[in-house]
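Re: How this chain folds, sequence and tokenised backbone to follow
Notation: Tokens come from a learned vocabulary of local backbone shapes, not from coordinates.
Start of record: The labelled sequence and token lines come straight after this line.
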Amino acid sequence: EAVEFIEKSLLLAGYAFVYRLWRVSRDAPADNLDFRFAGATCLAILVTSFVPHRWGIGLVATTTAVYFLSTNRGDKNLKAAGVLLFAMSAHLVWGPIIFMLVTPEVVRGDAAVVAGLLKILRPDIGWSDTTFTAPDGHGLVLVGACSSFQNISTALLACATVTMLTRPEWIRRDILIIAFAVLAMIAINTARLCLLAWDQDSYEYWHNGDGGNIFLFTQTVVVLLIAWWGAATGRREA
């Protein structure tokens, strides 16, 4: 389910990127630097075709984002397109690299939050490091794929995408909206992990059954509503 949510977020970000490019002013003609960069990008696409798909796209997106952000000639739409590319490259390449470096700490942090909630709701469930054990013998071990990190990075991408679709510039209030979205995603993931640790039947439903679809739907609706609300109210203030 998480993979499907990520793919939808990337598709929406790609649409927002094309939309902002379409809105770019045509007044300024391309110069020699633009043509040289276009040639270098084509070469980079050829070279990165030999590396894993996500990494290749992410690396090309990063260099293009830096170019748009540094040579946008004051065009807000081109700058917004650069922000979107940077957000996508961070999600595809740089975020996973950071996650690989801090996976144990992040997973332990998730486990501690889940343990705190279970201590209130199900104090009979034992907790040790990243392992939960129910009295009936059901056990759950948290791994990187269960971490809130994926949800957080996807929430950041969704907020950036919706904001840049609504308006081509950031305001200070957007930081609070992003923080709100991140906290909401952590809360949703924590609730799901609690249900996975509850007992075997609950695990089967929320991991392998219809509960997975409910989780995906809730996750998608919540983050998009927060992002759209923040971008819309920010547009009135901008």
Observations:
- The CA atoms of residues 15 and 165 lie 9 Å apart.
